[in-house]
Amino acid sequence: MRATANVNGQISLAAEAKISILDRGFQYGDSIYEVVRTYEGVPFFLDEHFDRLENSARLSKMRLSQSRDFLRTEILRTVKESGVQKGEDVFIRFTISRGEGPLDLDPAVVSKTSYVILVKELPPWNKNFYSDGMTLAIPSVLRNSPLALDPNIKSGNYLNNILAVAEAKEMGGDDALLLSPDGKLTEASNSNVTFVIDGGLRSPLHESGTATGNLRGITRTLIAALATEADIHYADVPLFPQDLGQATECFVSSATREVMPVKAVLLRDGRKISFPSGGGPIIKRLQQEYTRYVADYVRARKSEAWF
Ligand SMILES: Cc1ncc(COP(=O)(O)O)c(C=O)c1O
Question: Which atom of ligand 1 is nearest to the CA of 154?
């Protein structure tokens, strides 16, 4: 397959795609996006990603000019143009920018949102992240407060997360585990984090109206449902770095990472909290449940496969 882009209807190789320098997504990060993947050609949770895109638009006061059906058709057209074959799978990122217009922060100066669709191969995650696990480090950079920029706006401005990753890497981590301004655990730079505490799953709570927030991950929501079905208790709760002492397992989740074990968290005071290499029994069980769920999902939608 070829990495392929669609910029407002114009399809080309991704490396040759162009956007206007007056696009607010480029000028201000004034854009929102989603990432979806396919399994055996079937898009996974596409409607749930559209729901979240619409929620990001609402939270950022952006009126979408493109309907869900229009975007679905454009995404499919781009996927087909990529030349992807049966037996492969694709990563799809679709970004909506508030649009092109004069350099003026006032969002009212633009009237039409623009879109960019990128279709490429799935990210080649380091195999050790599954066989052994990732190391997360807690940087001094804090996660945006929902009172300033709600992490539930999945926006094209990731500077907060980028600064956190840069610092986490300097600390010897693979990724960051960000704290909120009020000292609570929030999420990793582009995934949610969950711990096993007292035999149950505990994930940092998004506390509306406070300084603590994280993105409502679609993968984490699925994992919560799978855990509950498997009689593993799940709860979103306020969590602090000192709670890590009680955690026996830790993993991150996202559409492309699925359930990825964490082998260690590096704390700000220099201590290292370690977890079982490759994940403990609960992570292994969740990975099995996840694989089973995906297989059932794909089986039920075989006739809707895109390629
Ligand atoms: C900041 C952040 N948190 C969490 C997630 C995980 O979300 P999902 O499970 O819907 O992929 C992402 C995914 O991109 C993210 O960027």
Answer: 16
